[in-house]
Each structure stands twice: as C-alpha cells, then as structure tokens.
Amino acid sequence: MASEMGTSRSVAERIGSWIVGPPETAPDATLLLRLMAGSVFLWEGILKFVFVNQGVGRFTKLGMPLPAVTAHFVGVLEIAGGALLLLGFATRVIAIPFIIEMVVAILSTKPRLFLGTLPLPPPPVPPQVGIWAVLHELRPEYAQIMSCIFLVLSGPGPWSLDASLLSGEEGKRDSLVEATARRRPLTVRHPPEAGEESWSDACRVVRR
Questions:
Q1: What would the pLDDT profile of 144-203 be if each residue is shown by its tens digit?
Q2: Phi-psi bin for 73: left (phi > 0), alpha (psi -120 to 50), beta?
Q3: Which of 114, 116, 91, 101 is nearest to 18 (CA)?
Q4: What are phi and psi of 182, to 5 degrees?
C-alpha cells in the first residue's frame, strides 16, 4: 500500500512539474502561434461583455445552465487566459482549460448545425446544414484547439515568460552546484581505537 501511494505521488509530481515547467523544445516561431491564439481568445472574451448576443444571449439560446454565470465565467477565462498566452506565462496551465472549452463549444453547436436544429442564426450563405456546413463553421474552434494542443505538448517557446523564469531557475541551480563543488572537502577525524590510545598512554608514562 505504501509503495503504491509513493508511486502515485511520484507520478502526480511528474505530471505537475511537466505542466508547470514546460520544455524548451518549441521553436522561436511558437511566438506567432501564441499571438494568434491568445489574441483571438482575448477579444472574444471582451465581446462576451460588450455584446449580449455573444455572451448571455448566446448561452441562453444554447440552453447552457446558468447562462449569465457561465457566460461571464467564460468571458473572464478568455480575457485572462488570452493575456497569459500572449505573455507566455503559465502557458500549459491555461491551454488545458481552453482545450476543454473548445470541445464544449463544438459539442454544443456542431451536431445541431448538422441536423439543422441549431437555435442560433444559420450561416449567411450555403452550406447551411449538413456535414459541409459543420466543416466550414468548425474552422475557428479547430484552429484554436490544435494551437492549444501544440502549446501543451511543446511549450511556449523561448520568447516567453515561462522560458525566462525557467532559465533563471536553472542558472541559480548551476551557480549553487558550482559553489558547492568549490568548497573544500571536510576531513573527518576518526577517534583512535582502544589499543592505539592505551599504547600512546603507555609511551607517555615511560617518557616521564
């Protein structure tokens, strides 16, 4: 039981460190991907507060539970999370809820668009119903979800606050290791054994 708890704890720690400490495997061009995804989330979150039909009204028509609370929560998430993606801070942490949000958005609209029962206004031009309408209207969610998956797997890239903080921590760790290595090794003096101690005492007595 104790070994199983230790194993599960180590796995949880690895997952936590993998999420919080992203690797530096993403290329420099990841900045462009973060700018695209972060800016779209940011202005879509603002739109949910500026226009009722994009926020509470949309969530009410879709039959979301507590539409006012849900719309405001999603709006705040998109504004704050979009800013975090633009800065490249806590990138993996915020990309995961964005993936969940996009999956919910797809499941709550696209099946009904396929069937022609979507309560929102239909697309202005054909295709308006069916698989081609779904594929056409799926573009923004598809682009955002794939961008977030890439950021979760590869990290935010070197041009990010995450990478700067990680490099700073590694620099401190290297300095500490180097300073520890430069210290002179401590010599441990072992106490003399019983036989040696008695022999030295006998020599002192003879000399006297």
A1: 999 999 999 999 999 999 988 877 655 555 555 555 566 655 555 555 555 555 545 545
A2: alpha
A3: 91
A4: -75, -20
Angle 4-8-14 (CA atoms, 0-180°, nearest 5)?
145
Q: What is the DSSP letter of 29?
A: T
Contact 31, 157 (CB under 8 A): yes
In terms of Cβ atoms closer than 10 Å to its own Cβ (0-12, 13-18, 19+), residue 41 is: buried
SS (HEC) of 90-105 = CHHHHHHHHHHHHHHH
- How many residues does this entry show for the chain? 208
Q: Which helix (H) or strand (E) holds 154?
A: helix 139-154
Q: How far apart are CA 171 and CA 149, in angstroms?
A: 29
Q: What is the pLDDT of residue 202?
A: 47
Structure token digits, residue 170: 């590694």
Two tokens at 20?
């919080």
Residue 138 has which token pair? 């799926």
Q: Quick check: 162 and 152 in contact, CB under 8 A?
A: no
Residues 86 and 35: beta-carbon distance below 8 Å: yes
- Given this model, what pLDDT does residue 166 score? 79
Least Cα distance to 54 among 37, 74, 83 occurs for 74
